Amino acid sequence: MGTYGIDSGLKKLEDNYIQALNLNESNTIEQFIETFLYDSWEYNEENMELIISVMGRVNRGDIHQTIFSQSFDRMITHLQKKLSKVDHDRNFPIVHSKTGASILVSFVDGMIIQYFAGIYSVGDLRKLTPQLKQSILNAISISGR
C-alpha cells in the first residue's frame, strides 16, 4: 500500500493523470480536448501493462473498490476543474459540473477498451481524434443549456 492507503500502482496512475492534466496548457475547450485525446492515446499505449495490473487487482479485490472509486473521483474532479478553467465564456455549461468531465472520460475509456480489444491501434485513434473531438464537443454543448 502506498500513500493514503492507496495501492502504489493506482497512486502512480492517479499522479500521472493529474500531472498530464496540469501540463495541458490549452486555452480553449477545443484545444484542451484535442490535447487530452492525443495524450490519452500515448499514455495508455505506454502504460497498458500497469493499467491492466491495477485493474486486475481491483477485480480480484486486492484494491478495495472504495479506494479505486476515490482515486477515480479525484481524477475526474481535477479534469472538471481544468475544463471549467478553459471554458472562459461558459459556452459549455456542462463542463462546470462533473458530468462534463465524465462524458469526456467515457469517450476516452470506451476507445481505450477498443484499443485493448484490438479493434483500433493507437495510429487509428490518432487519425480518429478530429472526429472524436467533434463528437465530444457536440456531447458537451447540448446538455445544460
Highlighted features:
145 residues; mainly alpha; 0% strand
Task: Write structural notes for this entry.
The chain has 145 residues and is mostly helical. It has one domain. Helices cover 76% and strands 0% of the residues. Helix 1 runs parallel beside helix 3 and helix 2 packs across helix 4. The termini are far apart. The mean pLDDT is 90.
Summarize the topology.
Layout (H helix, E strand, L loop, with lengths): L7 H16 L5 H32 L4 H22 L11 H19 L5 H21 L3
Structural class: mainly alpha
Count of beta strands: 0
Integer count of domains? 1
Q: What is the alpha-carbon Rg in Å? A: 15 Å
Largest beta-sheet details: none
- How many H/I helices? 5
Coarse shape: globular
Distance between the first and last residues' Cα: 44 Å
Overall helicity = over 70%
pLDDT averaged over residues: 90
Please indicate the percent range of residues in DSSP E strands (runs of 2 or more). Answer: under 5%
**H-E order:** HHHHH
